[in-house]
Design a protein that fits this description.
single chain, 227 residues, 6-stranded mixed beta sheet, 4-stranded antiparallel beta sheet, binds adenosine-5'-diphosphate, membrane, transport, cell membrane
Length: 227
């Protein structure tokens, strides 16, 4: 069974414009799927429909075997990492990472502390747990956003151009880290980018969107070798 199944997904805006047009795509359990395509092709809209931040006009979105079209984002058990990180400025690194666990209720404080430390360790944030986001570098903020994503077990990670605010050197480093982390955790991942290097190095498969249509789904090797 696929971790995420999209069946004939359409997103039509008020003026009749279809930002996403009849997209069907299965993402396997543990797979790292890239969504690429030129600006305006519908990548973010599709990602936002997976998370539940955008209503689906028609089609079925199935996650972990459940049809989720009418489920609120918090009931889909997914972690999303945004381009701007969306950290809480008044909370420490520890509390930013702990946030999803506190929302779940009923998790003992010991357990929260253990899981936050484990996530922070994986991302080399242990020495910064008491700091606020304003006092962190861009790369560290990115790590906090990832810590928050991995602190609980979820059906999938969703990334919306997570590295586009970083300089080239950091982007390379974080790319390696995201890849390492995803392999270690084995969590299904959907990753939106317009960066060819990210698409070719991170993805198990790459889904190419064009004007709302799914144009092609292939491995990086197949894409690279095609004429
Ligand atoms: P991408 O992420 O690939 O750059 P988007 O998914 O953000 O593309 O947008 C796809 C298309 O849908 C674009 O043409 C965009 O202008 C349009 N669009 C996005 N949001 C809305 C909206 N709320 N109302 C109308 N059109 C929208
Ligand atoms: P992104 O960086 O993800 O491509 P955009 O700058 O395209 O984001 O869009 C930012 C916001 O504006 C989104 O919430 C999107 O839904 C909305 N939006 C984009 N295009 C349109 C549009 N043509 N009409 C109305 N809202 C739009």
């Amino acid at each position: 069974m696929a971790a995420i199944e999209m069946r004939n997904i359409v997103k039509e805006y008020g003026d009749g414009f279809k930002a996403v047009n009849d997209v069907s795509l299965d993402i396997a359990d543990g797979e790292f799927m890239i969504l690429v395509g030129p600006s305006g092709c519908g990548k973010s809209t599709l990602l936002r429909m997976i998370v539940g931040l955008e209503d689906i006009t028609s089609g079925d979105m199935v996650i972990g075997g459940d049809r989720v079209n009418d489920k609120a984002p918090r009931d889909r058990n997914l972690s999303m990492v945004f381009q701007n990180y969306a950290l809480y400025p008044h909370l420490t690194v520890f509390e930013n990472i702990a946030f999803p666990l506190r929302l779940q209720k009923g998790i003992a404080e010991d357990e929260i502390r253990r899981r936050v430390r484990e996530a922070a360790e994986m991302l080399e944030l242990n020495e910064h747990l008491d700091r606020k986001p304003a006092n962190l570098s861009g790369g560290q903020r990115q790590r906090v956003a990832m810590g928050r994503a991995i602190v609980r077990s979820v059906n999938a990670f969703l990334f919306d151009e997570p590295l586009s605010n970083l300089d080239a050197k950091l982007r390379g480093q974080m790319r390696t880290e995201i890849s390492r982390m995803q392999r270690r955790l084995g969590t299904t991942t959907v990753y939106v980018t317009h960066d060819q290097t990210e698409a070719m190095t991170l993805g198990d498969r790459v889904a190419v969107l064009r004007r709302g249509f799914l144009q092609q789904v292939a491995s990086p090797r197949e894409l690279y070798e095609q004429p």
